[in-house]
Amino acid sequence: MSSPPAGSLPPWLPIREDLAGHTAYGAPQIDVPVQLNTNENPYPPCPALAQAITRAVGEVAGTLNRYPDRDAVALRGDLAAYLGHGLEADQVWAANGSNEIIQQLFQAFGGQGRTALGFEPSYSMHPLIALATGTRWISGARDADFGLEPDHALTAIRDHQPDLVFLTSPNNPTGTALAPDVIEAVCGAAPGMVIVDEAYAEFARDTSATALTLLSRCRRLVVTRTMSKAFALAGARVGYLAADPAVPQALLLVRLPYHLSAVTQTVARAVLALASEPLATVAALREQRDDLVAWLRGRGLRVADSDANFVLFGEFGDRHAVWQALLDRGVLIRETGPAGWLRVTAGTPAEMAAFRDALDAVLARGGDPPIAATRRAAARRRGSTSGAGSPDPGETAVPGQPAAEVHR
Ligand SMILES: Cc1ncc(COP(=O)(O)O)c(C=O)c1O
């Protein structure tokens, strides 16, 4: 069942005024044969890993009368070892998904009277968590090709002096990655914290281009990661960050006591101990992604460069009609990003074949308005450089608010 929109709440409920009328996060959870809409890893744990997880959970089962290690020290050590770059456990922090990490960062460094700047289209939860924590969100724009020119970023920082800057690389929903020199320039100019959301880092074509390399030079830089994607562990909810040791110390003030259950900690550690198993899927998914980009371009569609496990493609006059027609054929993708674009997650070869067959069938509907609009949009683009960077307010900015301006 999808969540009902918060805007439909009854008038007698005394919800905070700044939350009233907003729409909750709600990627559709629809039970169809091919689910390519939430950037999950399609490969479940292999039998050896499933057994290791079962064994680990069995071992803590008899101790669940006790609270877990409040500071998740062993897990943070394992995560630091996985990340490398000379990181130690005290530079790493873990929580229930990187969404909770991001929320804790907003709680500690944002809040009433403070601002956060992001460059959109980007991950829709950044402005939503800003809203939930009372942080004023400033929506900057990406370039027409969904990249970010350093000058553009520095101007926005100079103009707004934000307490937090969010850079997502590889970016969701566009898939585009930022060069480390852009991130370093932002760190040099930002007066507050710089958060680089690297949820998809392992899928990048150049994995050495991570912001982890900048940590020793940029004290207020935080790199967030997740086990949901490359580690195929979305169901266990494990996210983490790497930063100066002062950052995890600050987060102790806002985290709830015992926020990360003993079951979560032990499952994450079991998976990290056999990391090569889930991470072996990354190479296969990168290949599927690259094939998908080439195939979509071969169909005459516009496709953003992707360093993630998904691909943004368009442009359609009525993207909802295309999304629905695919769903009617049992293929669920995501209606997100700038108007006219759709996002599809890289899946197994069989899932990709089903997606290609379904999209071919949809595109083959001669004289179809969406396809006509694709050609019109392409012609428009040739005559103008603007437009591609403007987010769809319904998906990539705080819903119900104008997209390209300062808002709470
Ligand atoms: C850019 C980005 N950051 C963070 C997340 C949150 O991931 P999780 O909370 O599962 O770690 C996602 C999820 O899709 C994402 O796309």
Plain-language structure description:
The chain has 408 residues and is of the alpha/beta class. The chain has 12 helices and 12 strands. The protein has helices at residues 47-61, 73-83, 97-109, 125-132, 150-160, 180-189, 246-251, 262-273, 276-298, 319-328, 349-363, 369-383; strands at residues 34-35, 92-95, 115-120, 136-141, 164-168, 193-197, 221-226, 239-242, 302-303, 310-314, 331-332, 342-345. The chain has a 7-stranded mixed beta sheet, sandwiched between helices. The protein has a 3-stranded antiparallel beta sheet with strand order 9-10-12, covered by helices on one side. A two-stranded parallel sheet has the order 1-11. The two termini are 29 Å apart. The model is unreliable at 378-408 (pLDDT under 50). The structure holds pyridoxal-5'-phosphate. Pyridoxal-5'-phosphate binds next to α3. Pyridoxal-5'-phosphate (PLP) binds next to α3.
Ligands bound, unique: pyridoxal-5'-phosphate
Instruction: Return the average pLDDT rounded to an integer.
Output: 90
Shape by Cα distribution: globular
Kindly state the percentage of residues in helix.
25-40%
Largest beta sheet: strand ordering = 2-8-7-6-5-3-4
Portion of residues in beta strands equals 5-15%
User: How far from one another are the termini?
Assistant: 29 Å
Biggest sheet overview: 7 strands, mixed
Number of DSSP strand runs: 12
Low-pLDDT residue spans: 378-408
CA radius of gyration = 21 Å
Helical run tally: 12
List the secondary-structure elements in sequence, H or E. EHHEHEHEHEHEEEHHHEEHEEHH
Counting helices, strands and paired strands, the structural category is: alpha/beta
